[in-house]
């Protein structure tokens, strides 16, 4: 093929890709939140190597944990009020409806793998805190320090700023400082107004559908910046962070978990797809339900039904008007970055 012919062939491929309908059905499918293309690639490679959808979800989320995606997944991110980074993760099998999850996990980098161990080696669904970490160590996971120079720097600066902003309300700190100890009382008069930081709430949420229609989903995050120690967000909560049923579809959410977990958006989206609602509409409905009560919340959701159709939706707020997500299937033949307008 000469250079001119190769050029026109490339142009034709690009045009055909551009003309593909948004959310076109094809299996297998990997879809995940944000611009985390390496995560989608890792999941896809696991499928192509003969792995299960569970393997693919674990590999995809693990890739983000290792790469510290956007500083919001894995070790070395978002310190809590004590300066410690803790992790939340969940994995769900859409055939068996089994769930494994961990919250407030300490010292262990491989949160999604510990979540899978909870599913496969206990009768439980969710383990939290120090007990979750001890379980992980018993299962052979290596205990490591999750802090990094960056997380220490972030925490140090927060202390210099008198622990502002923070996640406390209706409390008064020690009058000599703004960093506690906190007691019930009037809100601090000079408490800094919290501004929404979209990078303070990111989660890798992933849905994988195999060629045979089996579906799995998973999430992993290091939670909210400066969270109160012990806080667990939406990511490890079935129906909130993610949810799947192979007969219907799967969904995964990202954003302000303290708000979103109250509405189980992933569960709602899957239930809507069960009765035939198109994925994009299911996503929009799940977001709309939260907006009615919390119009200024930050959040988004991805959805895919059992045939491989997919969609996404997000709440429009200042500074956040489009939500990026990644799709990998036989049509894209690569981890393709897409986005949706928020509403």
Q: What profile does the largest beta sheet have?
A: 8 strands, mixed
The amount of helix comes to: 25-40%
Output mean pLDDT: 91
The string of secondary-structure elements, in order, is HEHHEEHEHHEEEEEEHHHEEEE
Could you write a compact summary of the structure shown?
This is Aspartylglucosaminidase. This protein is of the alpha+beta class and 343 residues long.
Describe this structure in words.
- By secondary structure, the protein is an alpha+beta fold.
- The chain has two domains: 25-146 and 196-341, (Glycosyl)asparaginase (Glutamine Phosphoribosylpyrophosphate, subunit 1, domain 1, 4-Layer Sandwich); 149-184, no CATH class.
- It is built from nine helices and 14 strands.
- It has helices spanning 3-19, 37-48, 53-67, 111-121, 129-138, 149-160, 257-260, 265-274, 279-293, and strands at 29-33, 87-93, 99-105, 126-128, 171-172, 183-184, 204-209, 215-221, 242-245, 249-255, 299-305, 310-314, 322-329, 336-341.
- It has an eight-stranded mixed β-sheet. Strands 9-10-11-12 form a four-stranded antiparallel β-sheet, with helices on one face. A two-stranded antiparallel ribbon has the order 5-6.
- Helix 2 runs antiparallel to helix 3 (53-67) and helix 8 packs antiparallel against helix 9 (279-293).
- The chain is globular, with a radius of gyration of 21 Å.
- 50% of the residues are buried.
- Residues 6-21 have low confidence and may be disordered.
- It holds the Pfam family Asparaginase_2.
- The active site is at 203 (nucleophile).
- This is Aspartylglucosaminidase.
């Amino acid at each position: 093929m000469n250079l001119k012919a190769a050029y026109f062939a490339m142009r034709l491929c690009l045009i055909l890709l551009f003309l593909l309908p948004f959310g076109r059905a094809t299996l297998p499918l990997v879809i995940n939140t944000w611009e985390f293309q390496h995560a989608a690639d890792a999941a896809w490679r696991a499928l192509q190597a003969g792995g299960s959808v569970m393997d693919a979800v674990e590999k995809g989320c693990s890739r983000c944990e290792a790469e510290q995606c956007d500083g919001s997944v894995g070790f070395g991110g978002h310190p809590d009020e004590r300066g410690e980074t803790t992790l939340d993760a969940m994995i769900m099998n859409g055939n068996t409806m089994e769930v494994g999850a961990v919250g407030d996990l300490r010292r262990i980098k491989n949160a999604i793998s510990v979540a899978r161990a909870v599913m496969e080696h206990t009768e439980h669904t969710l383990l939290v805190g120090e007990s979750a970490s001890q379980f992980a160590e018993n299962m052979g996971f290596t205990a490591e320090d999750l802090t990094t120079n960056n997380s220490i720097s972030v925490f140090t600066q927060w202390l210099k700023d008198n622990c502002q902003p923070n996640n406390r309300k209706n409390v008064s700190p020690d009058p000599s400082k703004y960093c506690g100890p906190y007691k019930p009382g009037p809100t601090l008069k000079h408490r800094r107004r919290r501004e929404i930081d979209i990078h303070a709430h990111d989660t890798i949420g992933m849905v994988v559908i195999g060629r045979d229609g089996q579906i799995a989903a998973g999430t992993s995050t290091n939670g909210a910046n400066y969270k109160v120690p012990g806080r667990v967000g939406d990511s490890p909560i079935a129906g909130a962070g993610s949810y799947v049923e192979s007969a219907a579809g799967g969904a995964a959410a990202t954003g302000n978990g303290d708000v979103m977990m109250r509405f189980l958006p992933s569960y709602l989206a899957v239930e809507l797809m069960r009765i035939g609602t198109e994925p994009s509409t299911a996503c929009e409905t799940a977001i709309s339900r939260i907006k009615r009560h919390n119009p200024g919340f930050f959040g988004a959701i991805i959805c895919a039904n059992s045939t491989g159709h997919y969609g996404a939706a997000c709440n429009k707020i200042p500074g956040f008007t489009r939500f990026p997500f990644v799709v990998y299937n036989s049509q894209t033949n690569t981890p393709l970055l897409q986005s949706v307008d928020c509403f």
